[in-house]
Every structure is written in C-alpha cells, then in structure tokens.
Amino acid sequence: MAKEIHADIVFKGRMRFDGISGRAGASVAVDFGREDEPVEGFLPLELLLTSLATCSGQVVVGLLKRMGQDVHDLLVHAKAAKKEVHPAVLTSIEIDFEFRGGTVDGPSVERALALSEERFCPVWAMLKPVVPIKATHRINPE
Known about the structure:
The chain has 142 residues and is α+β, with helices and mostly antiparallel strands. The protein folds into 2 domains: 1-42; 44-140, 2-Layer Sandwich (GMP Synthetase, Chain A, domain 3), CATH 3.30.300. 31% of the residues lie in helices and 32% in strands. It is globular, with a radius of gyration of 17 Å. The relative contact order is 0.15.
C-alpha cells in the first residue's frame, strides 16, 4: 500500500503563499513575481532545487557516515537553467557538493553520490527522467 504525504498552502496576498508541512506543521514562504518585483520567499523552482539539494545531501551524509567517513561541513550548491517561455521548466541542473573539514575521501564521496542518484534520493529519481542532472564534488580540508 502506498504511503500518503500531504502539505497545505495558505494564500497571503499578492502572489505569496505559505506552504505548511503536513507532518511537522513547519511553514515556508513561497512567492512569485516578475523579475523586477521583490519577492518574500522561495520561488517554486527554487524550492524544487532546494528539495533536490537537501534530499541528496541528507542521503550522501548518511551514507558517508555509514562508510566510516568523518563529515564535518557540507554545502550543496544547486543551480539550474530554465526555458524563457512558458512553461518555464528546468532544462538542466547542476549540484555541487562542497565538503569542508572532516576526513572524507574521493572514492567514498563518489560512491555515496552514485547511490543517492541511483537508489536513495526520491527527488533525484523523480527529476532525472525529465531533466539532466550533473553532480560534482569538492573536498576542502580544514
């Protein structure tokens, strides 16, 4: 049987909504405006990139810890190109995993990234068939 997840949004005026987690009750501001208008929160596609970066980052850290690696700091940088005409979908995504401090080795990081892509990150699995995703990594010692 499939598990169910849910979220709600609340209209806050103009083009602003608050997205509310069905599990934790936490909220995130989501907004939309023309390029020259200020926004008060994530754009929907920024939130999608954040979901990919977070999901893959959590998987990679968990796998590296299981491999006995000492992960101190990880920054996941995500950027994407999108079409200029509607629907303005993402046409490519790049995610860069920047490890700072700790003691992680390249082969372990590469294995964890491959497992995140191939098996454990559901956001990556959903996006991969429709948009190319390029993952890179850097290891910066303390």
